[in-house]
Model the fold of this input.
Amino acid sequence: MSIEIKSLHKSFGAFPAVNDVTLHIETGEMVAFLGPSGSGKTTLLRIIAGLEFADRGEVYFHGENVTPKSANERKAGFVFQSYALFNHMTIFENIAFGLRVAPRGKRLSQEKIRERVNSLLETIQLPGLANRFPSQLSGGQRQRVAFARALAVEPRVLLLDEPFGALDAKVRRELRRWLAEFHEKTHLTSLFVTHDQEEAFEVADRIVIIDKGAIQQIGTPDEIRSGSGNTFVKEFLALHI
Amino acid sequence: MASFIDFRNPPGSDRRADTAVRATAEPRWIRRILIGIVVFFFFLFLLLPLVVVFQGALVKGVGVLKEAFTDQDILHSIWMTLIVALITVPANTAFGIAAAWAVTRYHFSGRQVLLALIDLPLWVSPVIGGLIYVLLYGRRGYFGPWLQAHDIKIIFALPGMVMATTFVTFPFVARSLIPLMQAQGVEEEEAALTLGASGFQILRRITLPKIKWGLFYGVILCNARAMGEFGAVSVVSAKISGKTNTMPLEIERLYNDYLFPQAFAVASALAILALITLGLKTLAEWKNKRQFEAGQRSLLEPTIEATR
Done:
């Protein structure tokens, strides 16, 4: 599903977090929002998900204007930086949550829910952990459960907020590869926020460099590496490479 | 302890607690005197009165006890106490959840004022709590003439007693939920929202299970206060035995009528209710602490990047 963002504005008090952002994301693309801390990239992602509302501007999912819709109507799969797993539920129930709260008419049967959850547990390679609680899992395992939970409701788009930010370097590389493979297989339109250039360049089809709430450059990893960006982009890349 | 600053082991280091105790430990004789004083006061002011209440109830034998708890007026006072609590506690529970939700989830103007107002009943004397309702709904109060014209009785009747008790017990549920909900944050609710859950589903499946022990604690505290309230209720109740007396008011009447064994009998019934409450409260505190810590752990674990 394609995502279209039209002149989005959002400020917190006097501080402009998102400043006139216009962006088109094609169906099946994997796009990274790359920028320093406080650049507004997470806010942008949250506006797309419907967790935050813009002061001005519009968001379209596949041509449909979803700007006035709340997050539970948009149903964009969202993966939180801190996973936000439901600590009082088992892993199975965490993944099943989105299926259980579906409106009566669309709700799957118990059996179908079990099938779906079990197959997702296979997908994330944690089949034996259905009855554990989140507190009994490692960071990397929790992150994968968060993925599975978001995917269970078959979202039209996947939004990831610093998905590997809280993990150590090794687990991070593994999960990054896993995500790239997953995207290769499913071609689910995905947006992820990161401040890690290596991550953006390795995983994304296109990179959106953001600073002070505004887009500084959009392009494929190669285009961005070629050094055609403005002063901020050059400095930002030089600082980190 | 609060004024003590340990420079070698700054806050957060694990050894701090242990070494701090040793480094600041007083000589043994001072420690003994301090503990002795605490224990002495505990016996004199807390344990002894409780024992005396039960002793006073039993001093004239079990016969008087039986008589007391078959007396119509006394039974009616117990009934009144239960009715008042039964209306007040659910009302304040609903209000407390709503207030805690609003204060911790939204940043609206007047939020600080609301926070301060929730605490108001703790700061003013309960008598004032009763008095304001007399001023509003009493015969000469603002709404008095209208109420009289429509033959509605609030003051010196059950509605007034419920209102006064509600005022006094206002803060307990909200106060026990606010810090807990602040510690837990909103991420789990947001996650549920992106998975398609409605507001009510989020409340029932995510928020309530997360706060249940804190809520239980607040409800218990609210209930204890509702049953034991004297001042506010005594202003709005006409104190008619067998009609508008709750247990605390009935105890006062019996005492003033020199019916000491009966007074102590009702007092011990109230004390037993309080002791049960205390037991439940301790359980809730213990469970709540674990929930609180779990909430903080899940918030502190990742390195959260400030985006606003």
In short: The radius of gyration of chain A is 18 Å.
